[in-house]
């Protein structure tokens, strides 16, 4: 009977997974074991160490979005040397770089520090909202943008750079951290938590499973 065959195929698809990198068919882990699940053949991470909770991750994404505004506009550092006092926000730095001879660096900063983190935030919020509401996401673009922006959003590296330069500049001038760097630090921390817990493959599987449940209920 074709319907029985379809149902058993669906069941099989629900209990196995093809590794996206090496295309090995793997059985989904049954128990709630601890630790991340990796492909035994190519070591690709297939799911995070924790269960995916769209509700709380969506809340963290919204908090990140609110933190981004002061992180961009408030001064990152205040530099004082021989009576000269200077401070700049992340937005000021990017605009200044885009105008001078450092245009390529400015474009890179704009891409890795503003465009990609923003795309990441929008894409992950869209996907988590869909998972929370059990709504199918029809366009595969959202997942593609999420995967791509995870690679290219480099706010954490920028933050590390600022902290290193603060210690180096400490010998030459008085460096005081501004409110912007605190907000940026918190935004980076929240983004890393969301990215660690919302692994793309795991999120995709959750949405596929929800789509199957919706189809079965009809
Ligand atoms: Zn693999």
TrEMBL record:
Give the transmembrane ranges. 57-77, 107-129, 179-198
Please give the Pfam families that the UniProt record associates with this protein: PqiA
Which keywords appear in this protein's UniProt record, sorted alphabetically? Membrane, Transmembrane, Transmembrane helix
By its UniProt entry, which InterPro entries does this protein fall under? PqiA-like (IPR007498)
Q: What is this protein called?
A: Paraquat-inducible protein A
What organism is recorded for this protein?
Alcanivorax nanhaiticus
